[in-house]
Amino acid sequence: MAAEQDPEGRAAARPLLTDLYQATMALGYWRAGRARDAAEFELFFRRCPFGGAFALAAGLRDCVRFLRAFRLRDADVQFLASVLPPDTDPAFFEHLRSLDCSEVTVRALPEGSLAFPGGLGEGGVPRLEVPGPSLVATNAARLRLIAGPEKRLLEMGLRRAQGPDGGLTASTYSYLGGFDSSSNVLAGQLRGVPVAGTLAHSFVTSFSGSEVPPDPMLAPAAGEGPGVDLAAKAQVWLEHVCAHLGLGVQEPHPGERAAFVAYALAFPRAFQGLLDSYSVWRSGLPNFLAVALALGELGYRAVGVRLDSGDLLQQAQEIRKVFRAAAAQFQVPWLESVPIAVSNNIDEEALARLAQEGSEVNVIGIGTSVVTCPQQPSLGCVYKLVAVGGQPRMKLTEDPEKQTLPGSKAAFRLLGSDGSLLMDVLQLAEEPAPQAGQELRVWPPGAQEPCTVRPAQVEPLLRLCLQQGQLCEPLPSLAESRALVQLSLSQLSPEHRRLQSPAQYQVVLSERLQALVNSLHARASP
């Protein structure tokens, strides 16, 4: 995945997208003769987002892509020279020009894994590449849990995202978290996210009804027989539809109907009507039915309708009744099951209503609530030094919450005999791994005494994905990571999976790690 073979990586790898103190510290380390010292950092978060009990690890692929493409260009070095002291030794800038990530090692949770307070990865994990993706993926997973497995979820928040990079990140990781598709074309091109979309209100309102298509003829779906003037055929059907609905034939907006005909001519096998540009009941619905039935006579089937305003649940139920009645009246059974899509500032509360039993909504488009994570716009990840030259380092502060866990570590997930998750264990890297069926003494957070657990299964959590700058194994595809999300969530107990007031999942320390923490505390005490 070298940068020269990966256009996305080359575009994403911008070394100066960092805080200035990284450059000032680099000069300080170099001046002290420590630029080549081996150091280990950990990336973690202290609280699960959105008041929940879980998060999803995401962004690893972006992280690896960034590291493997990392190189300071001449323009980068020249800019750093302009913001560092003017008497900085020129040799330092030659040192910067030689920097790459060929000595970086990264161990991390596989993308799509469940993550809990305590750790996402170790090594040279770029801080910018993980928190945002993890937050969006977790948010999307929550929305998927609310929607259930049957509703189709479309991410359509590109226009609401924080800039182009934010839009691409949101589209990618909402798909990983459980959405079915995105409106973002670039996410489809670069990341393989399924893309979906039809038409906006501007398309509908741009037509007045006086337009004449250059070629109004549409051939039958089977490809046999003469073409038919679709606009004329839709006009004939409009009379039948209006008589069925008790409407005057002049009530449906002619411009809307012309827009539907134009779209149907372009997409006869994927015609969808946007119903609320004018009046849903007096215009959008009869115009849709007229064009859909005209297409149906030629062997095509409309693929859906969309609502973007009003009481979406109630309207969907009433539209379904109209579809069923029209299907019986005109003897077209497929019409009664035409999918109904909805959108319009849908948040968790609105989604729960749309997903309830008896809802006739099939597809739900969500924008702002998934891409901006309004409940919690930041995951609050922390990136801290834990070892230098193999020796543990610990941040000691009066605020216990901001203290760090020292030393190079390993992490394991303990499971019960039924495969349910019991707890995660953090331990020193040199300790032997916990064994299934063997008793293990661990320290829960803030406990005065250890407790004992006997796991039926033990899973190592951190995978070696980059060693000395080299990829250790192929990274999973986005679709594979998406499947891991669903598998991971299925292993979580209902108490931990629920979104309101969940039980908190435990991340505990081994006895040796706890002893090291106590020892460093004691040394620092006056």
From TrEMBL:
Highest taxon, organism lineage: Eukaryota
Chief location bin: cytoplasm
Pfam families: NAPRTase_C, NAPRTase_N
Keyword Secreted found: no
Localisation: Cytoplasm, Cytosol
Alphabetized GO MF terms: metal ion binding; nicotinate phosphoribosyltransferase activity; transferase activity
Top EC category: ligase
Every Nicotinate phosphoribosyltransferase C-terminal domain range: 409-516
Gene Ontology CC terms: cytosol
Keywords, in A-Z order: Cytoplasm, Ligase, Magnesium, Manganese, Metal-binding, Phosphoprotein, Pyridine nucleotide biosynthesis, Transferase
EC number(s) per entry: 6.3.4.21
Coiled coil (UniProt feature): none
Cofactor requirements of the protein: Mg(2+); Mn(2+)
NCBIfam families named in the record: NAPRTase_put
Protein role: Catalyzes the first step in the biosynthesis of NAD from nicotinic acid, the ATP-dependent synthesis of beta-nicotinate D-ribonucleotide from nicotinate and 5-phospho-D-ribose 1-phosphate. Helps prevent cellular oxidative stress via its role in NAD biosynthesis.
UniProt cross-references to PANTHER family, sorted A to Z: NICOTINATE PHOSPHORIBOSYLTRANSFERASE (PTHR11098:SF1)
Family statement: Belongs to the NAPRTase family.
UniProt name for this protein: Nicotinate phosphoribosyltransferase
Native organism: Macaca nemestrina (Pig-tailed macaque)
Gene this protein is translated from: NAPRT
